[in-house]
Amino acid sequence: MNCMYDVVIIGGGPCGLSTGLALQEKGLSYVIIEKEAIGNSIVNCPLHMTFYSTSDRLEIGNIPFLSQDVRPSRNELLKYYRLVSERQDINIRCYQKVNSITKNTASFTIHSEDRVGNAIPYEARIIVLATGIFDTPRKLEVAGESLSKVSHYNKEGHNYFG
Ligand SMILES: Cc1cc2nc3c(=O)[nH]c(=O)nc-3n(C[C@H](O)[C@H](O)[C@H](O)COP(=O)(O)OP(=O)(O)OC[C@H]3O[C@@H](n4cnc5c(N)ncnc54)[C@H](O)[C@@H]3O)c2cc1C
Questions:
Q1: Which range of residues forms the domain containing residue 123?
Q2: What tens-digit pLDDT sequence spans the chain (162 residues)?
Q3: Where are the annotated coiled coils located (predicted)?
């Protein structure tokens, strides 16, 4: 029998993390399942990017976020998420991908797998889908799109020089 949670949150981006913090505050049991690292969509942003939002607008769980400039960099935001996760002891399982969900009489079974393909099922009364949109690039469906030298994220231009 799998461990039964009040809530399983799928996606460990800003929305999934703040949902976890809110549930924790209410004393509900939860787990966040994230297929990559926490804040994966932010990880995939350009390396030296500065956000449009000011740091106070990016805070989660009412935990202050101070950055060197009024608008934080990608690295500062990722550091903030790591710090909040650690300090608040957020219950998150990284590098597990949810593949499907089965509805039972009074619960759901969430079917996930780890990086080496081991099946890891979870049971929950409620599911929160916090899978975002930035994580799934809209492909052009053109020849050569899946070559290893093609990236669907703009990290930096350096490698394409010459
Ligand atoms: C270049 C750029 C600049 C931006 N600037 C700003 C800004 O200044 N201010 C601002 O507020 N926003 C900005 N954004 C948008 C911001 O990134 C999103 O609003 C935010 O990431 C949305 O959070 P989310 O938690 O809803 O989704 P996401 O951050 O996309 O998180 C979803 C998570 O779900 C995970 N996931 C998906 N499918 C599965 C699955 N099957 N199993 C397990 N996990 C899964 C993904 O890996 C991902 O980590 C910017 C985005 C980009 C690309």
A1: 4-160
A2: 578 999 999 999 999 999 999 999 999 999 999 999 999 999 999 999 999 999 999 999 999 999 999 999 999 999 999 999 999 999 999 999 999 999 999 999 999 999 999 999 999 999 999 999 988 888 999 999 999 988 888 889 888 888
A3: none
How many structural domains is the chain composed of? Answer: 1
End-to-end CA distance of the chain, in Å? 57
Residues 81, 86, 90, 92, CA torsion sign: positive
pTM, entire model: 0.94
Ligand 1 — pocket residues by CB below 6 A?
Answer: 10-16, 33-36, 40-42, 45, 49, 51-53, 97-98, 130-132, 134-135
Distance CA 41, CA 46 (A): 10
Choice from 34, 131, 155 to test ligand 1 binding pocket (greatest atom count within 8 A of CB) = 131
CATH of residue 49's domain is 3.50.50.60
